Amino acid sequence: MKPLAIVGFPHPLLKTAGSRVPCVTPEVLKQLEAMTITMRAHPRCVGLAAPQVGFRERLAVVDVGPLAREKKGTNHGLLQLINPVIRRREGNRTVREGCLSIPDFTANVQRATRVIVQALGVNDQPLTIEAEGFEALVLQHEVDHLNGLLFLDRVSSLVTDVFPRKTYA
Ligand SMILES: [Zn+2]
Q: What would the CATH number be for the domain defined by 12-164?
């Protein structure tokens, strides 16, 4: 399986809420696999949501493993999530975020420091993930994508909180 092309801003799909996946089918598993391969194909990419590769379903993949040494927090390894929702948020901090779909900018956004996420796993079983630190930030970013929200929608000021990207990892 080859990596999929990344859908970039301002494609309308990035502003569209995803549709709930009614049940785990071979097609859904294939989509998650393709998303995982695509995430892995981009260095320092730790998460990817369905609309970023042109899918309308509520699917996301996360793996903070590659950055676990430099970022603090939990590390559940590869998470392939179907219909993920954030059930609980705790804490608040300002963080600098970027996104594969908006490669030219980073921005300061407010995020919870700890989240509890519920989703359906690839084995069709419900999953509860308690994440803290960097992994919690990534999960919030990806769930936002499934609700048609980009990190630019979360900045307080487009003037003071958005920055042109200087280096591409
Ligand atoms: Zn993103």
A: 3.90.45.10
